[in-house]
Amino acid sequence: MPTRRQFLQTSIGASAALTLPSVAGLPGTEKEATFILVADTHYSSVDENHPASLAMVKAINRIADGSFRWPIQINGQRSGFSCAGTIIQSPRGIIHLGDITDFGGGTELNGGKGFLGLKHYLGFRPFWEHDGEGVGKSKLKVAYPVHCGLGNHDLDHSQRNRERMWAYIRQRHAGENPPIPVSSFDDDSLSYALHWGPLRILQLHRFATDRIYGRKPALPWLKRQLAQAKQSGQHVLLCQHYGFDPFGIQSRWWTEKDRTQLLDALAPYTNIIGLCHGHSHATGHYFRKKLRVIRCNNMGWELDRGNKDGYGSFALVRATDTHFDLVHVQCINASGDFRFSPKHAVAIRTNRTADNNS
């Protein structure tokens, strides 16, 4: 069974071209959306000097200050982005792909008991609530709404800690007037949808068919969302914690049956851009059958664990009714400097019928 370190040392991302049906002329929707994907922040405490947190939060806040443009070239190679050379627009929000905390669900070292889960839960919030007070004298916090997803580190081990994390999802996104509204919220699975520009983004937490810990699977809700997106002419982007890479498909995370059920639900649709996930602490771009899969990196310094990527990275996305562009943004230092990564970028035309057989 491969460990995350073994996976990171051997994994090679694959890129392929794909075109999707046009969504031009969507009634009542905007034609463009810029947003950010993050994963695996693994907070354990409130630390105003946490270098990785300073690096990522500051970089996210800087990237749309009007000084930066979508790259025309990265390391001397054409980026292929439809928006290359244009100023990066203010993001609609941030989508978190899970493992917000390191042990928000408790830890097996103490049977999930004690205050560790609460400490880790409280460690995340000051940095990543745009409507909060921020951290330290500078009141540092992200400038954009964070749409949270939960991973295994947020949910494993303790029912009490787990319920705290689920309650946070409800508190931030559910009900009539939540701090961060969503377009559709499923009370059974706590999955939700965002309608951003030409996209319908579906947050599925750990994975779509998750049925443990007393929560019903999101699959029935997902199928309804897919049908509605097809009817309205929207493209679909799926977001969850687990992926289809060698580390992510271990049965301790989700089973082959789970994955088959998800792929079967997606199979009838040609308007699906892909599935974005975290969990493996590295960027990636590959296919599972015809499904494009985009893997987002973690926040953290892991030079001693096989992941030589500095302070981690986040993904910057721009979607229009004709194109989908994604670039991974590598955080360099605690001052918020960053660089665009040449690895695993995505540039898709979305105005033709899907014809990829990968």
List the helices and strands and how they pair.
Layout: H1 4-10, E1 32-38, H2 51-62, E2 73-74, E3 77-78, E4 94-96, H3 116-128, E5 146-147, H4 152-155, H5 159-173, E6 184-185, E7 192-196, E8 199-203, H6 219-232, E9 235-239, H7 256-266, E10 272-277, E11 284-288, E12 291-295, E13 313-320, E14 323-331, E15 338-340, E16 346-349
Parallel strand pairs: 1-4, 4-5, 8-9, 9-10, 10-12
Antiparallel strand pairs: 1-13, 2-3, 6-7, 7-8, 11-12, 13-14, 14-15, 14-16
Protein architecture, described:
The chain is an alpha/beta fold. The chain contains 7 helices and 16 strands. The protein has one domain (18-349): Metallo-dependent phosphatases (Purple Acid Phosphatase, chain A, domain 2), CATH 3.60.21. A hairpin with a 2-residue loop joins β7 (192-196) and β8 (199-203). It starts with a helix and ends in a 9-residue tail after the last strand. Residues 34-282 form the Calcineurin-like phosphoesterase domain. Pfam families: Metallophos (PF00149). GO terms for molecular function: hydrolase activity.
Uncertain residue segments: 7-19, 21-28, 352-358
Largest beta sheet, briefly? 7 strands, mixed
CATH fold-level name: Purple Acid Phosphatase, chain A, domain 2
DSSP helical segment count: 7
In the CATH hierarchy, what is the class? Alpha Beta
**Span between termini:** 26 Å
Annotated CATH architecture: 4-Layer Sandwich
| CATH-level-4 superfamily name | Metallo-dependent phosphatases
Shape: globular
Helical proportion, percent range: 10-25%
What is the H/E string?
HEHEEEHEHHEEEHEHEEEEEEE
Fraction in beta strands: 15-25%
- Which oligomeric form is depicted? single chain
